């Protein structure tokens, strides 16, 4: 008797009409249902379907020869390169990892609780170009390929010319060597950025200003923001975020946090913030980094990247790629907030 009652209840449950819930269309019955297949939606309503682009942005083959049909204002570019590391490799898988970490973002659900704005739904048309095709057999050729990819992507006419005449690029790395290709494309930089000995002394001699990780305990988030803004002023800025700025507790899948500022094609004014090195303890929290990035609203960002993301060293909770995706979102927001004419 009990078994018959249970079977009858299960049969009845199949006819229950559930109310709409998040990401489920009313016609998509959760249990069974008799809806016509023509009414079933397989186009919308899932953040795990289709190609994995950054934040579910539209994909465009930006590397095609000649003109392309669609224009854009800001492009996401993957740089799968890690043969320039001095310690752990694995950052070539960073672009894919960051895109995985951005799956919960989307143009229709990109509203910030802090600003009330949606950077994906603004004047700027944002797209994902996929990864640059880089050889793993020759570092020199790979970096030249990346430099050409930057030139091709930024060399096309922007979509919203009333706001910005040249498309800007956010690069997903990849080890920090990839920043050099972006700087050469953006600013025409050719000088050496590293010395075998006395690297820190050389940075200071070249005009780098350093804010160490523990300085945030003395200055606070607002103090760090004020120093960075005072340093860069109204110059054009290339923002490079090494995920290693975060403490390993927040980003174990990492391999120095760096603001590269270019002014008239030079690195004469640069502010550098370090945590850092390779997975060193004592870095910033994810919240501190995001607050600092958001506090830089108003600076002239001509290009940006988030690098040194190595998913192989991440944990099952994907804390590193989630953090890197949020960093990329903050970089996008800075670009949207301050268009750069040229």
Polypeptide structure, described:
There is one protein chain. The protein is of the alpha/beta class. The protein contains 8 helices and 8 strands; from the N terminus they run αβαβαβααβαβββαβα. The protein has helices spanning 2-13, 94-101, 139-154, 178-187, 199-205, 215-232, 286-294, 319-337, and strands at residues 74-79, 126-131, 168-173, 208-212, 236-242, 257-261, 270-274, 300-307. It has an 8-stranded mixed beta sheet with strand order 2-1-3-8-5-6-7-4, with helices on both faces. Helix 2 packs across helix 8, helix 3 (139-154) packs across helix 4 and helix 6 packs parallel to helix 7 (286-294). The longest helix is centred in the C-terminal third of the chain and has 19 residues, at 319-337. The chain is globular. Mean pLDDT is 81; it is low at 21-29 and 256-277.
At a glance:
This protein has 342 residues and is an alpha/beta fold. The protein has helices at residues 2-13, 94-101, 139-154, 178-187, 199-205, 215-232, 286-294, 319-337; strands at 74-79, 126-131, 168-173, 208-212, 236-242, 257-261, 270-274, 300-307. The protein is globular.
Task: Write out key terms for the chains shown.
single chain, alpha/beta, eight-stranded mixed β-sheet, 342 residues
């Amino acid at each position: 008797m009990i078994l018959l009652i249970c079977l009858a209840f299960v049969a009845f449950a199949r006819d229950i009409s559930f109310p709409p819930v998040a990401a489920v269309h009313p016609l998509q019955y959760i249990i069974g249902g008799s809806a016509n297949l023509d009414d079933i939606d397989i186009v919308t309503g899932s953040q795990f379907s289709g190609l994995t682009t950054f934040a579910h942005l539209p994909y465009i083959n930006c590397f095609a020869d000649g003109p392309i049909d669609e224009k854009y204002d800001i492009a996401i570019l993957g740089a799968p390169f890690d043969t320039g590391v001095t310690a752990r490799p694995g950052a070539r898988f960073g672009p894919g990892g960051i895109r995985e970490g951005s799956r919960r973002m989307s143009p229709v659900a990109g509203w910030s609780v802090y600003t009330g704005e949606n950077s994906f739904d603004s004047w700027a048309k944002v797209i994902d170009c996929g990864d640059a095709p880089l050889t793993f057999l020759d570092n020199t050729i790979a970096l030249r390929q990346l430099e050409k990819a930057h030139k091709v992507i930024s060399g096309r006419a922007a979509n919203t010319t009333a706001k910005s005449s040249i498309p800007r690029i956010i690069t997903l790395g990849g080890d920090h060597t990839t920043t050099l290709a972006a700087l050469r494309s953006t600013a025409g930089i050719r000088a050496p950025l590293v010395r075998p000995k006395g690297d820190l002394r050389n940075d200071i001699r070249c005009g780098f200003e350093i804010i160490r990780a523990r300085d945030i305990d003395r200055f606070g988030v607002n103090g760090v923001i004020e120093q960075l803004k005072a340093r860069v002023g109204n110059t054009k800025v290339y923002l490079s975020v090494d995920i290693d700025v975060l403490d390993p507790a927040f980003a174990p899948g990492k391999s120095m946090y760096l603001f590269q500022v270019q002014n008239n094609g030079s690195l004469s004014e640069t502010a550098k913030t370090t945590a850092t090195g390779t997975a060193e303890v004592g870095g910033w929290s994810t919240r501190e980094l995001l607050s600092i990035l958001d506090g830089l609203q108003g600076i002239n960002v001509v290009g940006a990247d988030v690098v040194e993301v190595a998913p192989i060293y991440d944990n099952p909770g994907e804390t590193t790629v989630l953090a890197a995706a949020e960093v990329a979102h903050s970089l996008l927001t800075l670009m949207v907030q301050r268009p750069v004419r040229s």
